[in-house]
Amino acid sequence: MCRPVVVLAGCLLCASPALGLDMPARKAGQWELKMRFDNRAIPVQTLRQCIDAATDKLMKSDFGGSPQQSCEKQEVSKSGDAIVVDSVCSFGGATSTSHAVITGSFDSAYTMKVTSKRKGGPPIPGMARGGESHMTIAAKWLGPCAAGQRPGDIIMGNGMKMNVLDMKKTGGMPHLPQR
């Protein structure tokens, strides 16, 4: 599997405790997500997602609560205009304790700041064992999906494309992405 797909999968898994809960639905159309790790030597990852109501719900349930993931704690609360998510989840032999704060609008633009501490599991490139990770996801709605896109498409910054519906059919891991 190529490095960008690994980074994307890692980013989605890091954000998964926040995504898997009862979050507001995002507006249908094309969203741009910019993922930045504050304490890791990974460049900003930009991707676009084409979603409709069904694929948005699928992304939240599958990436945020896959059968291989077990969460002993998932709490969502409101603090002023922010949604706060605290979770403790295990996946792939690792346990991740996460705190996420989400601000903005699921109709136009939102920001998710996630602090995670991971114990166990295989090492993650660029991250010390047991280290804390700080990730910011800045998302903005771009408009309707582009011609040739279908709901569930994820287009990474380098142009590689995969679809969450196809990933679901193949057990959750992408095959060679289409260009």
Low-pLDDT residue spans: 1-20, 64-68, 173-179
Mean of residue pLDDT values: 79
Principal-axes geometry comes out as: globular
Strand content: 35-45%
Quickly count the helices: 3
Structural class: alpha+beta
- Rg over CA atoms: 15 Å
* Elements, N to C (H/E): HEEHEEEEEEEH
Number of strands: 9
What is the helix fraction of residues, given as a range?
A: 10-25%
Largest sheet: 9 strands, antiparallel
**Largest sheet strand order:** 3-4-5-6-7-1-2-8-9
Number of domains: 1
Head-to-tail CA distance between termini = 15 Å
What's a quick, concise take on this entry?
The chain has 179 residues and is of the alpha+beta class.
Protein described:
With 179 residues, the protein is α+β, with helices and mostly antiparallel strands. It has one domain. Helices cover 20% and strands 44% of the residues. The protein has three helices and nine strands. Strands 3-4-5-6-7-1-2-8-9 form a nine-stranded antiparallel β-sheet. Strand 5 and strand 6 form a beta hairpin. It is globular, with a radius of gyration of 15 Å. The two termini are 15 Å apart. The N terminus and C terminus are likely disordered.
